[in-house]
């Protein structure tokens, strides 16, 4: 994986946590990601939303894109579409994705870079593979995370953050066997570059076979681990977790996990919002009435305008928005 790498021996170390005195989190549930087709026809693996969305609060959706080796002409994207009421976070590990939105944000996301888009009161955007990837094909691997906004922030002004791979905060496990990339939030006082409205922590860890990764974790945050590749175990009970599976932790002050093979995982958690969630396609609000208002605002053009030079990629029809 070409996501940011480093010599762990040169990085700040996470603390050694006392095994007996630490309130280690147990494993509440393991979820197998389901497969879906999105956008123009690209496959995703989605561990949530699922049976119990409250376990993931404040997160709404996690889509694992790839890893896939596209042949020439196969790469797909998501043409212009609206959002309101939450944030989309796209993290690219292999390959690249181009983003354009109606507030002037945009660029190419690649090499461990992240696009953090706050839809807030409303935005239009598209996500498309670069022309070179479409023509030549190549490896594509990324993740999209949806982060909810509390009622008080649903209608905040849209915002775009371009976080380059070189901007992430890099840390090492105690023994140097794991590289941790802090994309957003804070880990043991080390802050990531992503600026969030909702308090969360979002990490990508690469753990060498046989190595253990212990992480201090805020007690008021939930905690989840999703496996991008490889296999390992989580919790002191050693619950197996492999590619395409999500582990949900119970309460406590710290997480522990151990790699059985070379293991890449996302570790994420946040302070639950604990508010009603009303979802309809690309809109996430608190009530059905607010969803209807979002649809009306989109149809009336109040969620933004596609830049003239980008009109070649049309927005979705009303029927497509409702799916």
Automatic annotation (TrEMBL):
What is the top-level taxon of the source organism?
Bacteria
Gene3D superfamilies to which the protein is assigned, alphabetical: Jelly Rolls
An MF annotation (GO) of this entry? metal ion binding
Cofactor names from the entry are:
Fe cation
Tell me the keywords, alphabetical order. Answer: Iron, Metal-binding
Record: residues binding Fe cation = 81, 83, 125, 127
Q: The Pirin C-terminal domain covers which part of the protein?
A: 202-303
- What's the record's note on cofactor binding? Binds 1 Fe cation per subunit.
Q: Where is the Pirin N-terminal domain?
A: 43-147
Alphabetical list of InterPro entries matching this protein: Pirin, Pirin_C_dom, Pirin_N_dom, RmlC-like_jellyroll, RmlC_Cupin_sf
Q: Does the keyword Metal-binding apply?
A: yes
Q: Which family does it belong to?
A: Belongs to the pirin family.
- What protein name is recorded for this chain? Pirin
What is the scientific name of the source organism? Allokutzneria albata
């Amino acid at each position: 994986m070409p996501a940011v790498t480093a010599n762990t021996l040169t990085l700040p170390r996470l603390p050694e946590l006392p095994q007996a005195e630490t309130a280690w989190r147990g494993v509440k549930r393991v979820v197998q990601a389901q497969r879906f087709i999105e956008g123009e026809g690209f496959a995703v693996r989605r561990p949530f939303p699922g049976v119990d969305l409250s376990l993931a609060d404040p997160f709404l959706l996690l889509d694992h894109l790839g890893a896939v080796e596209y042949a020439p002409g196969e790469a797909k994207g998501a043409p212009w579409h609206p959002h309101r009421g939450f944030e989309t976070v796209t993290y690219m590990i292999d390959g690249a994705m181009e983003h354009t939105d109606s507030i002037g944000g945009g660029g190419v996301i690649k090499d461990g870079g992240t696009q953090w888009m706050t839809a807030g009161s409303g935005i239009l955007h598209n996500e498309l593979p670069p022309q070179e990837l479409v023509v030549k094909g190549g490896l594509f691997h990324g993740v999209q995370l949806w982060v909810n906004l509390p009622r008080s922030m649903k209608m905040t002004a849209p915002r775009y953050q371009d976080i380059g791979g070189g901007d992430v905060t890099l840390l090492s496990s105690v023994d140097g066997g794991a590289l941790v990339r802090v994309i957003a939030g804070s880990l043991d006082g080390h802050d990531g570059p992503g600026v969030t409205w909702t308090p969360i922590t979002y990490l990508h860890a690469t753990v060498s076979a046989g190595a253990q990764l212990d992480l201090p974790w805020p007690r008021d945050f939930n905690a989840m681990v999703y496996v991008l590749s490889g296999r390992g175990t989580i919790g002191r009970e050693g619950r197996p977790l492999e590619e395409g599976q999500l582990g949900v932790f119970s309460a406590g002050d710290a997480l522990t996990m151990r790699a059985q093979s070379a293991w890449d995982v996302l570790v994420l958690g946040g302070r639950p919002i604990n508010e009603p969630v009303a979802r309809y396609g690309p809109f996430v609000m608190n009530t059905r009435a607010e969803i209807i208002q979002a649809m009306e605002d989109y149809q009336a053009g109040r969620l933004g305008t596609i830049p003239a030079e980008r009109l070649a990629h049309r927005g979705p029809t009303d029927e497509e928005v409702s799916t």
